[in-house]
Amino acid sequence: MRMVPVLLAALLMIPGPAHAQRAGASRNPKELIKQAEKLFEQKKYLEAAEALARANELAPDSRLIYNMARAYDQAGNVGEAISYYEQYMTEGDDAQLRKRARSSVDRLRLQQEREAAAAAEVENERKRLQQEAEGAQRRAKEEREAARVAEEANQQRLTAAYEESQSARRRMQVTSFTLGGVAVAGVAVGTVFGLKARAARADFDGATTLEGKVAARDTTRSNALLADIGFGVGLVGAVAAVLLYPKDVVPPPGQARLISAPAGSGLGMEVRF
Questions:
Q1: Cα(215)–Cα(223) distance, rounded to whole angstroms?
Q2: Which segments of 207-271 does DSSP mark as H helices, in order?
Q3: Contact (CB, 8 A) for 82 and 109
Q4: More confident residue, 39 or 242
Q5: Which among 74, 70, 250 is positioned nearest to 158, based on CA atoms?
Q6: How far apart are CA 264 and CA 266, in angstroms?
Q7: Is 30 helix (H, G, I), strand (E, B) or coil?
Q8: Exposure string (b/e) for 158-169, b if CB count within 10 Å is 16 or more?
Q9: Looking at residues 94-99, what average pLDDT do you find?
């Protein structure tokens, strides 16, 4: 789209001395306008606006203001475009261009409102996503903390259970050792009274009187009974000691151990957590 035509003849009516002071292409309004038109056609809108601004400084013309607004409008510089459109609406004398300027201002204002609304929507969406991300991070942190607390509690429970099992194992060991001592004592008592019974039997065999034989018999029976009781206590104590002695060592929490599987099934592994 071309710029609105500007009457170059009007610009060339600048007094001679002033025109002489502005010698050179960069100081010649006519050349600046031609340059701006070429830049506009090349879609170099900002450069075109700058050339028009220099031309307007040398030879002010409201139509140059309008074309500057058009250039900024095409460049997407909404703020500058609105500013120059409104300046033309105040200073311009072409009713048709003022109408176009008003329409352009309305269009750009609406564009600004839409862009602001879109930016606000994007910002709201960004905030929503940020809040969701922060909420997810917060929940993940809370879940990790809850898992850590649960793990600590579970570890404490396992440690307490392990210590209790170790204490029970030690009690069973003490009981087993005590029963083993009872078994040894019972065997010792049985042996002593067994020897006494054998000696009493020898006395029975060597007795020559009835009273001697009766006394030796009674002594033999008593010692034999005490020997049987001692051996019985020893046997029961030994069996109980063997049965009560803990066979498996309870591993600490988290430690693996091999366990025996049923015949023909190989080995298994137990892990305490």
A1: 12
A2: 210-244
A3: yes
A4: 39
A5: 250
A6: 6
A7: helix
A8: eeeebeeeeeee
A9: 94
Q: At what angle do helices 45-58 and 29-41 cross, to 10 degrees?
A: 170
> Quick one: tokens of 77?
């510089």
Q: CA 196, CA 188: separation in Å to the nearest integer?
A: 12
Which DSSP category does 251 fall into?
A: P
Most confident of 29-33, 228-232, 237-241: 29-33
pLDDT bucket at 199, cuts 50 / 70 / 90: confident
Hey, what long-range contacts does 37-42 have (CB within 8 A, 24 or more apart)?
A: 37/2, 37/3, 40/2, 40/3, 40/67, 40/71, 40/74, 41/2
Mean pLDDT of the chain: 83
The rounded percent of the chain whose pLDDT value lies above 90 is 47
Contact 24, 35 (CB under 8 A): no
The SS3 of residue 209 is coil
pTM above 0.70, yes or no: no
Query: How far, in Å, CA of 182 to CA of 173, rounded?
Result: 14
Of 14, 4, 11, the residue nearest 66 (C-alpha)? 4
Average pLDDT over residues 78-99: 95
C-beta separation of 260 from 266 below 8 A: no
Structure confidence at residue 24 (pLDDT): 44
